[in-house]
Amino acid sequence: MKMDHFASLYKPFLMVLIFLFSNPLFIMQDMKAQTTKSEIRMTDDGYRLFLNGEPFYVKGAGVDNGDIEALARHGANALRTWSTENGKEVLDKAHELGLKVMMGIWVGLERHGFDYNDKKAVKMQLERIRKRVLALKDHPALMLWGIGNEMNLQSQNPKVWDAVNEIAKMIHEIDPNHVTTTPLAGIDKELVSLVTKKAPEVDFLSIQLYGPMDVLPQLIRDSGYKGPLLVTEWGATGYWEVEKTDWGAPLENNSSKKANLYLQRYQKSILGLPKQVMGSFVFLWGQKQERTPTWFGMFLPNGMETESVDMMHYAWNGEWPKNRSPQLEDFTLDGKRAQNSIGLTANRSYKARVVAKDPDKDELTYRWEIMRESQSSKTGGDAEYIPEKIDGLFAGPLADFATFRAPEEKGAYRLFIYVEDDHDHSAHANIPFWVED
Does residue 325 sit in helix, strand or coil? Predict the structure, then answer.
């Protein structure tokens, strides 16, 4: 058969195919067929999130520039964001790895100066959010929308909940396939009453806690809230919840103490109220500066995993990862621990020692640092500056002990130890100290 005769025979069919695949309506229908529909159902076991008709228990993490591939590799099934920034890229990557996404929608905060009495600003915000929802709503990795983040933190104007309600209503109108929530800082009866009354369009509440995670089931019962819940942030005990030195420096738990708390809180609190809690997003799958560079991040600035990752791997899979992180047993400065409010004299030499082990008997290396104490007063996870690192203070080879010279300038500092194996895992701890002339 001649090619021109072949072309004339099949040309009508080719034209139809070209028309269909270039037609926006066809493309939209094809995308819609891939959309993940989410809903909340009451089952015999309590409230459950369903995706495309199948129950889905959220085993997730909050990701802030964190390693999404590592999240999937460790057995999670979901992640959350705090805004729609780079939303398409995040959704694409999640879909590639088989993860679902709670897409955060950034909503203006009073503590940042947003005025909910300003009707024009509120309307402009709603329209901005509408455009972002329209752009992302049909993506197959999208699981649900998180409206704002801790809108009750340092908030006085109840109109904030009117705005949240309008956003939820708008989402339901243009995206009927996905449920909505709003993450709250803590939970109590007064807050639940206010939010459920003023924002009935929100499908369910989410809560965020740190130290009080130990008593989460009781807090929920005391709040009177009977509906479905996600715990959208939880993790290490916060710097506002711990003991402090005489000069006000918060005492950070070492990486092993944190890891043990992660597992305890997951088993006792996340799994402890199965009738209401539909899963959680652990914080933080990544690293950030918040009072210290190590406080909340489950990874270190150099990308190394900490023992908290091991614990979540176990929580999600019921078994340990093949290679585990080093574990810290003790850490002292001048023979004292952080609780002793250690004072040093400028330019004098002191010794520090760490006791660590590795479950896999891997060879360990030791990295020591001294930084100035953070003077930040930011709250709610707002961006902080990174304190200055003081170089040139350590003498001799560095192992599980170190000799260093106290800084010459009076003030507050921290001594950090990082114990690393050769599989990109690290344990860490720090001790605040005060230098006098």
Answer: coil
Evaluate whether 373 touches 356 at the Cβ level (below 8 Å): no
Q: Compute the Cα dihedral for 243, 251, 211, 329 and give only its sign.
A: negative
Cβ atoms of 324 and 359 closer than 8 Å: yes
Between CA 306 and CA 303 the distance in angstroms is 10
Q: Which residues contact 134 (CB under 8 A, 6 or more apart)?
A: 174
Q: Are 281 and 231 contacting, i.e. CB atoms less than 8 angstroms apart?
A: yes
In whole angstroms, how far apart are CA 225 and each of 189, 221, 229, 230? 8, 7, 9, 13
Q: What is the pLDDT of residue 28?
A: 40
In a 13 Å sphere around the CA of 338, the CA atoms on its Cβ side amount to: 23
Report the DSSP pairing between strands 349-357 and 327-333: antiparallel
**Closest by Cα among 159, 240, 152, 156 to 188:** 152
- Give me the DSSP letters along 270-301: ISS-TTTEEEEEEEEEE---BSBTTSS-SB-T
pTM, two decimal places? 0.90
What is the C-alpha separation between 230 and 151, in angstroms, rounded? 16
Token output for 131: 């455009």
Mean pLDDT by 10 residues, the chain (437 residues): 45 46 43 80 96 98 93 98 96 97 97 96 98 98 98 95 98 98 97 98 98 96 97 97 98 98 97 96 96 97 97 98 98 97 98 98 98 93 92 93 97 98 98 96
Question: Are the beta carbons of 68 and 97 closer than 8 angstroms?
Answer: yes
Measured CA distances, 229 to 189, 236, 281 (Å): 15, 20, 12
Distance, in Å, from the CA atom of 126 to the CA atom of 117, rounded to the nearest integer, reads 14
Q: Check: CB of residue 51 under 8 Å from CB of residue 100.
A: yes
